Amino acid sequence: MENPGHFSVEINRLAPSRDESADGPVLTPEAVEIWAASEAGQPDDEAVRPNVQGGRERGLILHKLLEEVLTGETPDDAGALSERARALIGEIGRPVMADPSQGLSPDELAGCVVRTLALPEIAELRPTLVPELAVYAAVDVDGVEQATVGIADATSFDNAGRPTVVIDWKSDVEPTAETLNLYRAQVLAYLDMTGTDRGLIVFVTTGQVIAVTPTPAPMAV
Question: Which element (helix H / strand E) includes 64?
Answer without folding.
Answer: helix 56-71
